[in-house]
Amino acid sequence: MAPASTDLLYNEVIAAYEEEESKITIRNLLDKVTYASPVNFRESMQTARHRWFPYKEGFSPTFVRSFLKEFVPSAGQVIFDPFSGVATTLLEASRLGYSAYGFEVSPMSYSIAKTKAMVVDASNLAAFDQWIKFFTTDSLADSSHPPDHSTVISYFEESFLSALLSVKAFFLKIPDPNIQALFRLAFLNCLERYSTHRKAGNGLKRKTRLAYGTALESPLEQVRQTIISDLNRFKADLIQEPTLAAFSLEQGSCLDEELYPEGILFDAVLTSPPYANCFDYSKIYLVELWMGDFFTNQQSQKSFRSDSLRSHVHARWPDRHSNFGHELINDQIFQFLSDQPMWSSQIPTMIKGYFDDMGRLLSILSNRCRVGATVGLVVGNSYYGSLPIATDLLLTMIGRKYSFEPVRIDIYRNVVVSSQQFIQAKHPKYMRESLVILRKI
Ligand SMILES: C[S@@+](CC[C@H](N)C(=O)[O-])C[C@H]1O[C@@H](n2cnc3c(N)ncnc32)[C@H](O)[C@@H]1O
Question: Is 3.30.479.10 the CATH number for 39-107+246-271?
């Protein structure tokens, strides 16, 4: 039986959640499994430009548009996404005539977002077409260097790795940076298909069946055909929508206040931070980051991790931004988690660090949002040692410290947890993904 003090801590945390919930409007949208759900990349895969890369953590464009329609009625207003990812918010906002700003720490996601924002004219399109033709008939006899990462190399059969490196050697020679970027994106897109591993949960797992194309074609021809078909999709979208209002995206951490644009106040923020669920983007996109030359040595992976929000246990961060979080986390939650046996002893520090970082962001946003601005945060709650970490409620509590009042929480989805966690969970209602809506007062 757990010691009484542990039970006491647990009960105090749940009582604090319940008290917070009693003060907030909560909309349960669990039955509405539609494109309007915030994180649903299936819709993006059918939408021009968004379909250029499957970022599974990305927003659905319909969700972005409905948020903007409800909370930012006039075009021309300023929208900000501190965790831009592949820029679903920024792209949709600029399509609707808003000014859009964002940050993204991953060099890969940043590069994909920039490519998706490309503006072309007829001569650019003709040149792109010409390069697709060269690629179709080229012997692809050259090869580029494999990445300096033995695990990444081991995730490909030799013949497919060699085919991919030949394709890479071809596109690295394209002098036009926009055309090279489109080829690189098609290359990134096909890596998982031709790898022996696939993305699964928080990491990469060996595929049980290697579903490559027809065995009649050589690996090189299979890869070439996949890339050509992608390039033609990009071309079709560019023909349909050659120009796009510009948005401003910086590569860097949203926790670095010096990077923020001077003299601009945001009218709304719509974002989704990494969840506090130990998902490490540098692990899940390991193959793309190294094969795409976004990481070239261990240091590049290290600095990406240290600039990221503290949402996993694969890095050691300094104790930055302490006291930006909340005493419920620093005292009861930290103590409760520290007393539990867990698969990583880093979890209590990670949780504290996560909310210190999010508190730091809200403190920056408090200076950068105009009074009345709406902040929408899509977050997933997590569970550690039978304790729900109700990120949505903890963020409304932290928000109050920085002059943000809660407007509403919309619950969209139940978060799938392991069967062991489900059995342990005394309060399964907190296993959810939701949109937290705050207003700057
Ligand atoms: C859930 S994804 C956002 C997806 C985005 N809504 C979209 O539609 O593409 C979270 C993103 O935050 C980025 N990120 C993590 N820490 C960051 C930081 N400190 N500053 C900026 N971006 C960060 C990750 O690289 C990841 O792309």
Answer: no
Question: How do residues 206-233 score in pLDDT, each as one tens digit?
Answer: 998 776 666 678 999 999 999 999 999 9
Structure confidence by residue, pLDDT tens digits, 48-65 = 999 999 998 899 999 999
Query: Sheet harboring 99-104: ordered strands across?
Result: 26-28, 404-414, 432-440, 369-380, 266-271, 78-81, 99-104, 248-251
Q: Which residue out of 57, 253, 321 has the highest number of ligand 1 atoms within 8 Å of its CB and is therefore the one to mutate?
A: 57
Checking if the pLDDT of 234 tops 70, the result is yes
Domain residue extents for the chain: 1-34+314-434, 39-107+246-271, 122-240
pTM of the full structure = 0.95
In sequence order, what are the beta bridge partners of 294? none
Distance of CA 138 from the midpoint of ligand 1 (Å)? 37
